[in-house]
Each structure stands twice: as structure tokens, then as C-alpha cells.
Amino acid sequence: xxxxxxxxxxxxxxxxxxxxxxxxxxxxxxxxxxxxxxxxxxxxxxxxxxxxxxxxxxxxxxxxxxxxxxxxxxxxxxxxxxxxxxxxxxxxxxxxxxxxxxxxxxxxxxxxxxxxxxxxxxxxxxxxxxxxxxxxxxxxxxxxxxxxxxxxxxxxxxxxxxxxxxxxxxxxxxxxxxxxxxxxxxxxxxxxxxxxxxxxxxxxxxxx
Length: 208
Fold this sequence. Notes:
Elements: H1 2-9, H2 18-22, H3 28-43, H4 51-55, H5 61-74, H6 77-81, H7 92-105, H8 111-117, H9 123-136, H10 142-151, H11 155-166, H12 169-182, H13 187-206
């Protein structure tokens, strides 16, 4: 709390103690408090931290992940535009955080970089790439979702690809229904498509 008060009150060097603080382990509540602090600073036109520069001096993986994702909310335009440079970070957690941030921003200018990184990603991060494409929703990647579904050996990746395809506008829904017609002989795939369809309907009902 003392350090948070220092950030709020200091005009000269508000983030002097942040690096040592972020090396500590954090619970969810503490990260929520930091998120609220950044929101207050942003709303009051106070000096914001340079999130990506901070990450270069911090070893705590969870703190770095948090700071990368905070770029989507409070980062400068320059920081937001540089998120794609982390898509092939040596650390898979940082790759996921950067992709998540771009998905939150729905930044079409970084869509191609996400797509280009797909083949170089492990399966868990490939799923985040698919979610980025779905969030940006440019309408250009129906065939890519179908390809990901057909070629992935991971059930989770295939499921994410189908879910993204289902929500990808009218062209995506049409392709989804075409796939449903193709898998009549495969009970497993038919059940998977039916489950995605059912969950989408349930989510629509919740919004009513």
C-alpha cells in the first residue's frame, strides 16, 4: 500500500520501487489492485509506466505476463503496436500474453503477424492465435480455421478452431455447417460440432 501511495503522490519518479515489488509473488487480488491503480492513473492523466520496458528488468514470469496484458488497457500507442514482437518470444507465457493483448485490442494491423507465427507455435499457443483471428474478425480467414481443424492432432486446437469458425460471421457459419455435413460418418467429430452449436445457443439465451 505504501508503494501504491508513492505512485499516486510522486511527480518525479513514481515507479521507482516497482521493479523490486514486481519480483515478488502475487495473488489474484494484488494484480487486481494494480490494475485498478493503473486505471486511476490513466483516468487522471498521470504518468503511466512503460510496461514493455519494465518487463525487460523483471524476472518474475507472472509479473511480466501481467504487464504485457496491461498494455492492451493502458499502454501507449507505440507499445500496443509493438506487441507482435513478442509473438515468438523464447518464453511461451509471454507469447500467449501478447496474443491475448492483441485480441483484446482487436488490432487488425497485427493480425498477419499472428497468422505468420502459427506454424512456429506449440499447440497451446496456436489456440491463442486462432482466438486472435476470431477476435479481430476481418473475415479473411475462414479457410485457415477449416485448415486448422482438419490438420491439427490436438483435440483442444480442433475444438478452438471450430468454435472460432462458428462465430466468424456468416461465411464462417456456412463453412461450419459444411463441415457438419462432411463428418456424418465420424461420431466423435459430429458430437464435437453439435456441442459447439449447443453451447453457442445457450450463450445467446443467457444474453436475452
